[in-house]
Amino acid sequence: MKYVSEFRDPVLVERGLEGIRRTITRPWVLMEICGGQTHAIVRSGLDQLLPPEIELVHGPGCPVCVTPLEQIDKALAIASRPEVIFTSYGDMLRVPGSGKDLFGVRAAGGDVRVVYSPLDAVRLAEDHPDRQVVFFAIGFETTAPANAMSVLQAQAKGLKNFSVLVSHVRVPPAIRAILGSPTNRVQGFLAAGHVCAVMGYWEYLSIAESFRTPVVVTGFEPLDIVQGILATVRQLEKGRHFAENAYSRVVTEEGNRPAQGIIQRVFKEIDRKWRGIGTIPMSGWGLADEFEAFDAERRFQVEDIAPNESPLCIAGQILQGMKRPHDCSAFGGACTPEHPLGATMVSSEGACAAYYRYGQ
Amino acid sequence: MTQALISRIFYPAFENAPLLRGDDSAVVEDPGPGRLAVTTDSHIVSPLFFPGGDIGRLAVCGTVNDLAMVGARPQWLTAGFILEEGLSLETLQRVAESMKAAAEEAGISIIAGDTKVAERGKADGLFINTSGVGIIPVGREVGGARARPGDVVLVSGTLGDHGIAVLAARGQLQFEADVISDIAPLNGLVEVMFEACPRLGVLRDPTRGGLATALNEIARQSGVGIHLEEPAIPIGQAVTAACELLGLDPLYVANEGKLVAIVPPEQAGAVLEAMRAHPLGRQACRIGEVIAEPGGRVLMRTSIGGTRIVDVLAGEMLPRIC
User: How many CB pairs lie under 8 A apart between chains A and B?
Assistant: First the structure.
């Protein structure tokens, strides 16, 4: 299949791995930001093929994992209301809130539906004028344009029964928070290719410069990841640090300007809590004042829900690259994909779920 | 109402002596030597009709295949229908005719049945339960606990076609895929496999949960490991593309006309040849082997040469966000 099979070609992957082996002279700690990359690495078994000098730690780029508990509890409260059709991307349904998950709400009679696109939720609102349709607008810069577009469409159609529960987060503030932490171990970043397809990588130029850390825009197939690692290792071995694009078939420096324009119109930058990590200043998006009428938190008055996390789970440290899934006492025992304690075990993109499912 | 349905739709479609006698139970004459295999399955599918099949064909083939997977020759089925009030007679007629065709294809008779009508809103159009009885010929011993290290893992064709065809037909995902469900009765294919290898010990149809789930069940039942070669696993291009787009793993997508067989290495060639000579096994191939350790686990050597665990699915398969 064009653009997929070539990037899984074992001969080309081996050639890239050989390049890494020839270049590397000492241990390096790299972080792949995106959960999609973590998934690809363990699913293809790439982690076992890399030279032992490379330690990959898994970043916070799993939208399902970092969505804070209170947003999930708000989702559960809203979805339980009889007048509501609650719509969400599929993998949010199994994320445990303080009590149950969205599957539990559905089993108890709530109308919870999986959609592939927020525009499907807008269509539902048109088709069901007597119901309140709520879309759970989570994700990074990748899902933000379509989620913002759903609000614009609902406004254009004059829909009074559509709203969004927003929990958007952005990558660059998370990288800054990780690099600025006194316990940081990460020496180079594989930036998330899909995020950069929307946003470009101009924001990473100053991050690489000011933290003296390579940031390499990387794709999602095994060969993409090998090439991203090779580019990062080359910079590190030469003592260099700049933002580099190893995913040029998809990403440009400026990114997708119309998509960025839609995001800027509908959202505003706000402080956002990341599950397991805490609040990172100006790290997320909320609805701009002009679109307050579409804010599900206001419409259903759930702003004050503020629950506590399970004390056993170390998801926060895993998401910051400080610990790995096997370091957790609950991993594989008290915490499994069937009964997840924390968000990194829930999503297939979560580091714990990826280790559990594919790891040795 | 139900009496009219029975005489107008079901009797003509499923015509056979035990059914037409109209007694409270169907009575079959001496079934002959061998052990009896008995199974039951309830079928719910939305939409009722999809490319390559419908709920009726699914209800017949699903039960026929469950019998065939223990080495039984399927003989008789019963069918219980739960209709939602308002279901059109034309729909029911189409389903009954499809069941008739599938029954003929499989060489079985539907000898007993029941129909109930649920109030509107209490059932999603039509549910069908089928139970089946088959006869296991003397000498056949089939079960998931019979895999041994060194045995070869065979699959009868491409994976994931049924699941993706139904998903596309559901129409909620705004994508169209040129994929046809593989629903078919596998008892004919199984018979030619037994001719090639009378000692055939492990058969399974990878329905819900797909190949990964079926092989994990076998690995656990037999206390062995199973090692797969990713490049050898046959998956059609449209299914691969749909799974890439939707974030699904084809190893977990349902099949309704495929089987996995685990056979002794010295007979693998003959079994494979027999499968490929049968219309339902043309794309049969070898995808891996049984290993001693780690017991109860399925491993896969990936296309790029790494190894990963292929685990069972937790809960229902969910599309990923990005």
Answer: 102
Enter the pTM of the model: 0.86
CA distances from A217 to A228, A250, B121, B208 (A): 7, 10, 52, 38
pLDDT of residue B30: 83
Residue boundaries of the structural domains of chain A: 1-312, 315-358
- The 10s digit of each residue's pLDDT in A122-156 is 999 999 999 999 999 999 999 999 999 999 999 99
Chain B positions in Cβ-Cβ contact with residue A139 (cut-off 8 Å) = 321-322
Residue in chain A closest to B308 (alpha carbons) equals A358
Q: Is the CATH number 3.30.930.10 carried by domain A1-312?
A: no
**Each residue's pLDDT tens digit, A343-360:** 788 776 688 888 887 764
DSSP string, A148-217: HHHHHHHHHTT-SSEEEEEEEE-HHHHHHHHHHSTT----EEEEEHHHHHHH-SHHHHHHHHHTT--EEE
> B47: cis peptide before it, omega within 30°?
yes
**H-run or E-run covering B208:** none
The reported pLDDT for the residue numbered B314 is 64
* Of A291, A292, A297, residue with least CA distance to A152: A291
What value does the mean pLDDT of chain B take?
93
**Could you give all domains of chain B from N- to C-terminal order, each with its CATH number?**
2-136 (3.30.1330.10), 144-309 (3.90.650.10)
Contact flag B319-A116 (C-beta cutoff 8 Å): yes
Strand order in the sheet with A243-245: A54-61, A28-34, A188-192, A215-218, A243-245
Nearest C-alpha neighbor of B233 from the set B186, B283, B193: B283
Q: Which residues, numbered 122 to 151 in chain A, qualify as contacts with chain B under a Cβ-Cβ cut-off of 8 Å?
A: 138-140, 142-143
User: What ipTM was estimated for this complex?
Assistant: 0.79
